[in-house]
Design brief:
Blueprint: E1 5-12, E2 14-15, E3 27-28, H1 33-54, E4 58-66, H2 74-87, E5 89-100, H3 104-107, H4 110-115, E6 120-126, H5 130-135, H6 142-155, E7 158-165, H7 172-183, E8 189-194, H8 202-209, H9 217-233, E9 237-240, E10 243-245, H10 253-259, E11 263-267, E12 272-277, E13 280-285, H11 290-298, E14 305-308, H12 311-322, E15 329-330, H13 341-345, E16 351-354, E17 357-360, H14 368-378
Helix pairs in contact: 1-2, 1-11, 7-9
The chain binds S-adenosylmethionine and iron/sulfur cluster (SF4).
S-adenosylmethionine (SAM) binds near residues 66, 126, 196 and 198.
Amino acid sequence: MTPAPLGVYVHWPYCSRICPYCDFNVVRDRGRSRQQAGLVRAILDDLRIQAALTGPRTLVSIFLGGGTPSLLDPSAAAEIIETARALWSPVDDLEVTLEANPTDAETSRFAAFADAGVNRLSLGLQSLDDDALRLLGRNHDAAASRRAAERAASIFPRLSIDMIYALPGQTVADWTSELREAISLGCEHVSPYQLTIEPGTAFHRAVGRGTLRPPPEDIAADLYETTQSILEAAGFEAYEVSNHARGPTARSRHNMVYWRGQDYVGVGPGAHGRLSLNGDRWATHAPAAIDDYIATVARGEGPSGRERLSLRERALERLLMGLRTLEGVRMSELAPLGIDDAAIAALDGLAGIANGRLIVTSSGRPVLDRIVRELAHGA
Ligand SMILES: C[S@@+](CC[C@H](N)C(=O)[O-])C[C@H]1O[C@@H](n2cnc3c(N)ncnc32)[C@H](O)[C@@H]1O
Ligand code: SF4
């Protein structure tokens, strides 16, 4: 029997500059080369510790995320990738994704990352408009973004582009031309994210002071509809709420691991994981601070935070993750929530059952949070 599938998430927390909208676990990269070397060693040790826990598994994906893992030394990326490949059994077409920022310095290292084993680049363009990039506090302009996308498309077999929309003052016409240009840059996958004002960020404080005004709800809804129709017309299927792929082979296999409720090992500061061990499902989480993470791994503890999920928590997670996708979630996986026909009928066409799976319709997608709340609370 083939061992159960497994994804590996590696968190590299350093960034050249902290963007004012970002609430990920990040720190400014001030060259700390000793700490960075220590972090690479801790990540490698953590992989070994967690492999001893999981036992043999079929490795389907490695995702180097952040932060800005394109700042990582490519030889360190190669060591991490090789170590994961050696610890588990990789599938022939193992997906190895690297998140990258489109500065010229990082673009010049793309070939080295491809040699290191990266075969899919997730490029954080965010915008192709210089004013918008300035507003977002990015350290690249639109010309550098274009150069990065063109080079990435010529080097990596698979290219995904991240964009942020619903910026203050953005019109449907602005966004239409940016998105059309982005999909002409040779990508097979696009993740357009609506700008979220996260508590604790500089943008949150600016909104509080009244110096930053996100677009009103009706404009944001128009921008969402525009996104869906442009991408659909260009052959990008919305296989998940914020992810569009040119056909099933272009889907992010790594994200499918999350959305299908499969197992993944999370290594690096603040990384989360989900492991099924002896019939139980565990949520793992590493310390967020870099030095705490390194010290925890050095004590041989591996994922220091480990919680066994109850059957209800497991089903809630399946609801939350599965409903994000076009394939939905098997009703049998939701049994502990006791969702009945009446609860689904009350959603008035926002979700329905097909072939034993609960699936959110296109009209339900913009109100996904509400659907999940109603199904989870009604249960
Ligand atoms: C963890 S970030 C890392 C990517 C890379 N460091 C970069 O900035 O391009 C992943 C993606 O999340 C999105 N993102 C981060 N914060 C966001 C926010 N507040 N609202 C919408 N999207 C956000 C961006 O599109 C970004 O590319
Ligand atoms: S958006 Fe990317 S580059 Fe900016 S702070 Fe967040 S992770 Fe770092």
